[in-house]
């Protein structure tokens, strides 16, 4: 009688004479037993020459959970979704804090640029710190869990310390720098785990995980606005720190990798190659990503302020940011699904062209709440969906020579620089002293945002051209 099976096994650590596992530079080599013949005749000594060490290694081999599916993979994805929403969701909701800090003491006498810097610095550090932390975690993966706990503590502690701030500089250090560093470390650990669980369905799974930031950015503004209206900003930060700590501790406790941890000796660890920086495809995609991010992020930052400039109630500005982030989540899910089935560069073109058209044709004439909502739905969905290309692009650029996690982190650094520059440029272009009502509701722009609108649309046109150029580079295999 013959049986066949496909089992993916992970060999255990070699043992010394005492039976204890030894440490060393041991690779995570996969053993795939495909269609193994289990007929008794195959076990005759004359036909199988197996050493005692091989028999011990085979007998102690550990079965790995399935990749791209199964209870454990989807459980991890759910936990990653929670951690994503807790870290990125708050940063994407900073527009609520910015509007509050601008109009209430003790920060209302500070410059708009300084107040905006709190959210900008936090967002930039969370992007830019990824590649460095990922490099460390891939070199010493056994410290990953400790880093996650320390990062979560830093996120919560930074908000508590920020609640005692008396100057904007204090907020930049705490709510900006410290929270950004904690979020970057926590997110980097999640990314290294994510790459173990999903391969073929990485774009879709990545979009689901990244959707946590959009969902958090959709729900958190409403909750933050309610807290700020009912109690001081100081207690809002303290309550939010507790709100991050509870679900965050649960998620970190249960989050785990698919592969067994092996304590590689740092001196023998495989060096990470950065030669991909010279690859034409990386250059064109990263440049396009940079341009797109410069135009995209000022919109989420200024939506509450734009609604206020229209003379709308504060709650309408909050809802506009909520709808924007929710549309971004939906766009990432849809575009992530498309990236698994169509060329991701085609998704880039659709996103960039649609974003440019919505900026010029809708935001430029958005003189009512209904048009504001229409704009944030279309621009948020198309512009936010652009970032669903990250996993697919990283894997494509990496090939078999590089780490896709490192490449993704490098793209995040580039995006982080754009996150800093975009709002700074928009702040310079924004004229808060412009007339509240434009001369004619059919006119383009107004409310101090005319040049900002032109800038955003122009960046999206440039991103469209960059996407087309990337398509040519990939097609011609440059």
From TrEMBL:
It is found in: Membrane. It comes from the Eukaryota. The keyword Methyltransferase does not apply. Residues 73-475 form the Major facilitator superfamily (MFS) profile domain. It holds the Pfam family MFS_1. Residues 1-20 are annotated as: Disordered. It is a multi-pass membrane protein. One of its GO terms (molecular function) is transmembrane transporter activity. InterPro entries: MFS, MFS_dom, MFS_trans_sf, Proton-linked_MCT. The chain crosses the membrane at residues 73-94, 114-134, 146-166, 172-194, 206-227, 239-255, 276-299, 305-327, 347-366, 372-393, 405-426, 446-469. Keywords: Membrane, Transmembrane, Transmembrane helix. GO terms for cellular component: membrane. Belongs to the major facilitator superfamily. Monocarboxylate porter (TC 2.A.1.13) family. This is Major facilitator superfamily (MFS) profile domain-containing protein. The lineage of its organism: Eukaryota, Fungi, Dikarya, Basidiomycota, Agaricomycotina.
């Amino acid at each position: 009688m013959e049986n066949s099976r496909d089992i993916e096994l992970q060999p255990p650590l070699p043992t010394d004479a005492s039976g204890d596992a030894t440490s060393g530079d041991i690779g995570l080599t996969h053993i795939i037993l495909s269609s193994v013949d289990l007929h008794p005749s195959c076990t005759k000594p004359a036909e199988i020459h197996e050493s005692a060490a091989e028999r011990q290694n085979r007998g102690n081999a550990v079965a790995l959970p399935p990749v791209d599916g199964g209870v454990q993979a989807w459980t991890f994805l759910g936990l990653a979704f929670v951690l994503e929403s807790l870290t990125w969701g708050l940063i994407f909701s900073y527009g609520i804090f910015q509007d509050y800090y601008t109009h209430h003491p003790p920060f209302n006498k500070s410059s708009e640029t300084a107040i905006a810097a709190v959210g900008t610095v936090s967002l930039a550090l969370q992007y830019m710190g990824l590649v460095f932390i990922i490099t460390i975690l891939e070199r010493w993966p056994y410290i990953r869990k400790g880093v996650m706990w320390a990062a979560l503590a830093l996120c919560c502690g930074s908000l508590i310390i920020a609640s005692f701030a008396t100057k904007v500089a204090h907020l930049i250090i705490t709510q900006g720098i410290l929270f950004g560093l904690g979020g970057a470390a926590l997110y980097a650990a999640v990314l290294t785990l994510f790459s173990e669980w999903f391969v073929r369905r990485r774009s879709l799974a990545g979009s689901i995980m990244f959707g946590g930031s959009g969902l958090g950015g959709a729900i958190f503004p409403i909750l933050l606005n309610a807290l700020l209206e009912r109690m001081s900003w100081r207690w809002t930060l303290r309550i939010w720190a507790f709100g991050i700590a509870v679900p965050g501790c649960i998620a970190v406790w249960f989050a785990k990798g698919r592969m067994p941890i092996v304590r590689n000796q740092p001196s023998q660890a495989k060096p990470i190659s950065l030669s991909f920086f010279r690859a034409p495809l990386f250059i064109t995609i990263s440049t396009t990503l940079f341009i797109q991010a410069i135009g995209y992020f000022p919109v989420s930052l200024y939506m509450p302020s734009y609604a206020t400039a229209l003379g709308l109630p504060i709650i309408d500005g909050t809802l506009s940011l909520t709808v924007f982030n929710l549309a971004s989540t939906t766009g990432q899910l849809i575009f992530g699904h498309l990236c698994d089935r169509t060329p991701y560069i085609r998704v880039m073109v659709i996103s960039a062209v649609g974003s440019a058209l919505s900026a010029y044709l809708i935001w430029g004439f958005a003189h009512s709440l209904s048009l504001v909502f229409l704009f944030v739905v279309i621009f948020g969905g198309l512009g936010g969906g652009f970032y669903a290309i990250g996993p697919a692009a990283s894997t494509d650029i990496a090939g078999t020579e590089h780490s896709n996690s490192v490449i993704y982190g490098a793209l995040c650094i580039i995006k982080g620089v754009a996150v800093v520059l975009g709002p700074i440029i928009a702040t310079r272009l924004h004229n808060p002293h412009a007339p509240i009502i434009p001369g004619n509701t059919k006119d383009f722009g107004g409310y101090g945002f005319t040049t900002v609108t032109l800038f955003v649309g122009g960046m999206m046109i440039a991103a469209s051209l960059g996407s087309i150029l990337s398509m040519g580079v990939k097609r011609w295999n440059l």
